[in-house]
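Proteins fold reproducibly. Consider a sample protein:
=====
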Amino acid sequence: MADVIDERIRAIQITSGFGFTAGAILVALSLFLYPSLPAANETNKIVEMLSKQESGGWMMLHATLVLGFVLVAIGFTGYGFLLHLKGSSGAAAIVTACSLVGGTLWAAFLSAEFFVHPFIMNLVSIEPGLGTMLFSLYWFWKLGAIALAAVLLFAAVAAAGLAGTARGLQPVWLGWGGAFFAVLGILVYLIDFLSAGATGAPINPLRTAFVRFGVGLPLQLWLGAVGVMMLMDWANKRPVGSGIGGRRDTVQTTGRAPKASLEQKPSMERQRPGAPPSGPSGPSGPSGSEPPPLPPPIP
């Protein structure tokens, strides 16, 4: 059973390590290349800016983002299984659910940019008013969805960082550092959401440089660091979390300890109480194979 657990852990290390590392590189590269956008409610300026973007480059940029978020979701799913094996089933449920839902939202709405951009650009050239109105409907829906997706991924990072530190899977500085930036991102989006309710301006997660580089980039570095550590453990065939300070837990292969059978107990324990111990055979004495004869009866 222990061999099966070791195989599962090594499979998680290579899968999650690759997903975290490759996904972080692709998402970070896309964040650097993503253009600065006007305010979210100024859709006419956004349409004007998008008209200057080449359709092929815009599609490739969003395809890179989609692939990156899918790989990150795979990494978080495997990490959730690892936390479950280490005993943090509650944190594993949070990491898995938030990463899958968040990654799905990112991939679904970013993939719409594959065909929305050329369609809207063609429509705007013919009917500018109708094209801007249709784009506004799609744009506001997209911004709301990816804002929720970002918050869910922040929650996955916070749960993975705190639980990973508690179980000895990450060093303290890495786990708590990722949780800090994740909570910071959640607070930023929460404040934007509350202000949007008062002003009516929608949230644009990719617009401000602070959110993109002050929160998003450190989290991409966190993903890359966790992924590289898992790949190094897999390459060196080391147990997960080896060499990392903190609480160390062993994976339980069964829920109860094995009971010793009667055949495994010494012969002394199987004898009835008060019986003389058996020893090597001899002619007489208490250690002989037969008890001494009884004295004759008294008349």
In short: Residues 245-273, 277-288 have pLDDT under 50 and may be disordered. The CA atoms of residues 206 and 212 lie 6 Å apart. The radius of gyration is 32 Å. Residues 2-235 form one domain.
